[in-house]
Amino acid sequence: LADRLGYDGICVNEHHQTCYGLMPSPNLMAAALARRTTRAKIAILGNAICLRDHPLRVAEEVAMLDVITKGRIISGFVRGVGDEYISFSMDPTTSRDRFLEAHDLIVRAWTEPGPFSFEGKHYNFRYVNTWPRPYQQPHPPIWLPSQGSLETVAFAAERRYPYMQVFSPFTTVKRILDEYKNQARKFGYEAPPEQLGWAVPLYVAETDEKAWEEAGPHMDFLFNKLLKRPFHQFFPPGYLTEKSMSRVMGDKSVGNKQHDLRDMNDKGMILIGSAATVRERLTEFQNEAGIGLLVVLLHFGSLPQDLTLK
Q1: Rounded Cα distance, 71 and 136, in Å
Q2: What is the pTM for the complete model shown?
Q3: Strand pairing partners for 42?
Q4: Closest CA to 105 of 71, 129, 72
């Protein structure tokens, strides 16, 4: 339906053994969408590449998806959250090193004619020789959704990867995007809008009151039931640097606290209302932060199919 309605893209992501994200394999979902859509981009936001013992599989699978869709793939890379490391019995303190190494391996596999060898701390391959090659050259666009760590912001800005935030007050989103812009200037360029992203749960109905009546219980279920867990389960010790951890602890809407949806809406963590109300707020936020990429979460919590399609 989104493809027929003219949405620019459809996004899939990856989570493991969680009640709020029933999508353990984004590439599998992308493959299904590849045959059910004809126009929209398919944005994998993203593959948790550091969870893989063989990230070369990500390079091969995404390249094949890119060929199947004739270049409609956007390849997001993520580290996942603490739940993932618990699910796979992995050491979260190795997350960043594994992510950086896997990223370098995948990009080389897409862009460097093989065979070549790759020797790292976590990954070693004697022969890397990816077939098929990606349809898009030099490779599918890489996006970096993130929880807001300083290191990831700098990493994305240096490589001119689009960066985006989710589940944060808009003041936090704006501050982090401003940091991204400052990092971009350090690398000698001005970050354009198409590199500045924001993901937000959103619901529109005929009136503000109708929107709250329809979406409120399901948004409440997402934040006050499905996302409720100890903070250290989301961000275990060692997953973030000390500086990034202190910031994330003050910004994120995760943990055991009870959330007031009206307050979250006022802060721009969610958007619920009539088309006019939501359009006005989106325009305000876009003007403030220069956002060029808007990812709307149109299904959330227990929202049923009919209201999602509406």
Answers
A1: 5
A2: 0.93
A3: 10, 73
A4: 129
